């Protein structure tokens, strides 16, 4: 029986990030009584409050700064930007504020009860809520027919990089923008490292990236990364590959970063701030999961099936905690699948293309099969490339440093994947995602009219290039399949 301090719902969603709130909203749309539990004052999770959204606001400012400088070559000279850090912070926080208050309103309209606090399982269908100060008065117990676990991930910090000093930051601290450090060391040349490096460099920091492997963005196709590397190398002070961080040491004058390997001439360098961005780990500890039948992998991810069902019949898991890639849009899709499956619909997470975008300058994006994966799987694919040097639109933007490529099955001519690097690649990847998901063949894209002059034509011309018939590129002709 529900008491004053406890409620009964059809679905309780633990974690209010883009996966959690999408699941909660959809479950409510499907007619269920829903509670959404999150630790922050509002829904949004890491992505909206401390990740994707604030970083993209800063990256937009970085783009503006770069473009105003580039304009000198086109006969327009602007004065060097003056950064009002307080105002910039206010603007970034304002963007977050606007979106999170919108989510509160959307929750209210759908009758989704938002509970602010930290939830812990006390059984397969019960949660104890440690209510946050602002959430006092809310229910401290939730009993649910079904629980969706959506607690996301946390930064992974290896022992060598643990130092209790505010000058050593994680991505959240970096986004707080306490100051613009003169010398910034970024450990990890992945998504967070490169995106943060891009906005800090634009704001005036000397950025040094230390990456353990032999290239930036390990896992992404090298031809795409090469274009990005060449561009960011102009804006960063240094990029050290194959380099290991042995230790961080707090000194009065800064944080000493001790490294080994790579091409580093001085193995100990001092920085005003250090950002550690070497990956994230699932947030599955301390949730009381031992009181349920949920099983986890060796790496701490919750095991799920295609309907996001865990090994406990009352619990589904979505998003970062349910496996890689740790991307908000994958979490949101999984959230919708979980809600529909709970409602008895035959939905499954059967998507074949999950777009990945690194919002650097230039942006780098891919979806479906990558060349790296095709090689690892020993799969024969034809790669059809269209360099942006041949794109009229890219020329008008002064951004011919781009490349669009399609991975095509040579037998069926089906589009299996798309990779793209260039200004605005993050928006362009949507066409590739749809093509892969809809099982388009190269002719579908080649014969679709793409507006001129746009960067989207590079997708069409990459498809045309497969037949050796791209208007703005000469390649020997290939026979068309009838
Ligand atoms: P990441 O996995 O993208 O990159 C981590 C990098 O650190 C890798 O290049 C890795 O080789 C390197 N590394 C690992 N150990 C190291 C060490 N000891 N020394 C130096 N380098 C080391 O991880 P991230 O950048 O921390 O981001 C975490 C996750 O967050 C991403 O995988 C992604 O799923 C998500 N994310 C996505 C976006 C986006 O979609 N645009 C943006 C930010 C974060």
Structural summary, described in words:
This protein is an alpha/beta fold and 482 residues long. The chain folds into 3 domains: 178 residues, FAD/NAD(P)-binding domain, CATH 3.50.50; 120 residues, FAD/NAD(P)-binding domain, CATH 3.50.50; 111 residues, Enolase-like, domain 1 (2-Layer Sandwich), CATH 3.30.390. Helices cover 31% and strands 24% of the residues. The chain is built from 13 helices and 21 strands. The strands form 5 sheets. It has a 5-stranded mixed beta barrel. The chain has a 5-stranded parallel beta sheet with strand order 7-14-8-9-10. A 5-stranded antiparallel beta sheet has the order 17-18-21-20-19, sandwiched between helices. Strand 17 and strand 18 form a beta hairpin. The relative contact order is 0.12. The mean pLDDT is 96. The site of nicotinamide-adenine-dinucleotide (NAD) has 25 residues, from helix 6 and strand 17.
């Amino acid at each position: 029986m529900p008491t004053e301090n406890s409620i009964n719902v059809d679905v309780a969603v633990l974690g209010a990030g883009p996966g959690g709130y999408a699941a909660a909203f959809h479950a409510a749309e499907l007619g269920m009584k829903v509670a959404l539990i999150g630790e922050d004052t509002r829904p949004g999770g890491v992505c909206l409050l401390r990740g994707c959204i604030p970083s993209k606001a800063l990256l937009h400012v970085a783009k503006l700064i770069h473009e105003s400088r580039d304009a000198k070559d086109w006969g327009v000279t602007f004065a060097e930007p003056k950064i009002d850090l307080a105002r910039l912070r206010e603007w970034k926080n304002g963007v977050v504020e606007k979106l999170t208050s919108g989510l509160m309103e959307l929750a209210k309209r759908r009758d989704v009860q938002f509970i602010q606090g930290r939830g812990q399982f006390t059984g397969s269908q019960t949660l104890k809520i440690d209510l946050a100060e602002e959430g006092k008065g809310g229910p401290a117990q939730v009993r649910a027919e079904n629980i969706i676990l959506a607690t996301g991930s946390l930064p992974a910090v290896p022992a060598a990089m643990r130092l209790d000093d505010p000058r050593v930051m994680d991505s959240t601290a970096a986004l707080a923008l306490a100051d613009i450090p003169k010398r910034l060391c970024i450990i990890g040349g992945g998504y967070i490292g490169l995106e943060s490096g891009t906005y800090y460099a634009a704001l005036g920091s000397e950025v040094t990236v230390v990456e353990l492997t032999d290239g930036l963005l390990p896992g992404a196709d090298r031809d795409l990364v090469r274009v990005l590397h060449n561009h960011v190398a102009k804006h960063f002070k240094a990029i050290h590959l194959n380099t290991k961080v042995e230790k961080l040491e707090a000194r009065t004058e800064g944080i000493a970063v001790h490294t080994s390997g790579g091409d580093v001439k001085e193995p100990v360098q001092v920085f005003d701030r250090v950002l550690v961005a070497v990956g994230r780990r699932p947030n599955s500890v301390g949730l009381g999961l031992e009181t349920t039948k949920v099983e986890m992998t060796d790496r701490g991810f919750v095991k799920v099936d295609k309907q996001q069902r865990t090994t406990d019949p009352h619990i589904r898991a979505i998003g970062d905690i349910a496996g890689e890639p740790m991307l908000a849009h994958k979490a949101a899709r999984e959230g919708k699948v979980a809600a529909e499956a709970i409602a008895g619909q035959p939905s499954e997470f059967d998507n074949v293309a999950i777009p990945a975008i690194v919002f650097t300058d230039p942006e780098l994006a891919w979806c479906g099969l990558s060349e790296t994966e095709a090689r690892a799987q020993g799969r024969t694919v034809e790669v059809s490339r269209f360099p942006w040097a041949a794109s009229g639109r890219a020329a008008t933007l002064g951004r011919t440093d781009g490349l669009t490529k399609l991975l095509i099955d040579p037998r069926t001519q089906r589009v299996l994947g798309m990779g793209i690097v260039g200004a605005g690649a993050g928006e362009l990847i949507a066409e590739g995602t749809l093509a892969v998901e809809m099982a388009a063949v190269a002719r579908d894209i080649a014969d679709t009219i793409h507006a001129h002059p746009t960067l989207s034509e590079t997708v069409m011309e990459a498809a045309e290039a497969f037949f050796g018939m791209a208007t703005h590129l000469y390649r020997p002709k290939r026979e068309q399949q009838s």
